[in-house]
Structures are given as structure tokens and as C-alpha cells.
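In the previous chapter we treated chains in isolation. Here, by contrast, the input contains two separate entities that must be folded as one system, with a combined length of 227 residues.
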Amino acid sequence: QVQLVQSGAEVKKPGASVKVSCKASGYTFTSYDINWVRQATGQGLEWMGWMNPNSGNTGYAQKFQGRVTMTRNTSISTAYMELSSLRSEDTAVYYCARGPMATIFDYWGQGTLVTVSS
Amino acid sequence: SSELTQDPAVSVALGQTVRITCQGDSLRSYYASWYQQKPGQAPVLVIYGKNNRPSGIPDRFSGSSSGNTASLTITGAQAEDEADYYCNSRDSSGNHLYVFGTGTKVTVL
């Protein structure tokens, strides 16, 4: 069965960076995009960007351009999302989601809580 | 700010029908997908494309689109349908970039 398992919760200070991992299993990792979505407490979903694990190509929401980097390690079927220059407003649950086609996110990770606090 | 606008909240009596709408310019050219999210859980895809349901999604969920508005309809709402619902589509640039709607809280009375 398809599974996306994310790394554990993180606590970071303002200005630091965080790198969240998303390990895929149950399908061919390089055949589907990985998207990243975040959700602050009590707020809506916010799409951050996508990565094609086969080519490494990426596309980022304008809001995160210059601060986010999405990468992968195909040998271990794992995608990564790194967000830099963290501020308190980045405190949120970060999800990875498989994207078989545009706007379709059919399997999601369990979420990773990132807390930014001094 | 989101380019896809949804009503913040709607309510529906048990067994009745509710329609949730999503408005945005990109919807004139692209389909929306719809996600259900219950408290403390990851979102779940319920509708994609013209009107397609993933395996396991009840047929009381349906989708439609007209002009700049996409709609998700729940026909015969059940207590377990109480959740937040989000639409998603391409952003207004039409590039391989996406955006979620503002979300709608559905309450089943």
C-alpha cells in the first residue's frame, strides 16, 4: 500500500532552517510528483511547491521563492523540504502529498509540526 | 491572499443536500479538486477532474463546474461528513503552480 512517512516534530529558533523528510513506499517513487502543503494552527491549507523525483525539477509558490528548497534521494525514495530564515509565522504542520496529476494529491504524509520560537 | 474563494461555513441537516462553492479566475480554464479534512487528520481527496471520485469515496460526493465557479455537492449528508473542505486548482498564471481555496467548514445538524 502507498505510504508517505514524514520525519518527527521540530523546534527551531527564528532565523534558522528546517529540513523535513518524506519517505515513500508502496509505489515507484520516481513516477509521481511530491507536493508540500502547510497548515498553521486553526488556518487553511497552503500549497508550497512540487518536485518531480525523476528529474529533480521543482516549482515553488511565489510566497516561498528564495526560502524553500525541495530535493530528493531516489536511492532511499525520500523527498525533502527545507525552509530557511524561519520566522514565527512559519509555525505549522507541514505535509507531503503524492501528486499523480495536476491539482491531485492522492496520498498524504502524517504531517510534521514545525515550531519556530525563541 | 488566496486566489480561490470559498464561503467560510455552511450547515446542512442530516440527510439533506449541501453545495460548497469555490470561485476563482483559473477555474474558467482548469478543473478543481476537492479535499476533506477532519480535525487532527491529513486531508483526503474526495473529487478530482470533471467529476471523479477516488476509490472508497461515497457516491454522495459529486463535483461540477461553471464559469469561474467549481462546486462540491454532498447529497444526503451524513454525520461523518462534518469537516473542513478545500478546493485546489492551478494558480491564475496557469503555470505548474497550485493554490488552495480558503476552506469551508461544513456542519451537519
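Strands of chain B lie at 5-6, 9-12, 17-23, 33-37, 44-47, 61-66, 69-75, 83-90, 98-100, 104-108. The CA atoms of residues 81 and 108 of chain B lie 7 Å apart. Compare these points with the single-chain example from earlier in the chapter.
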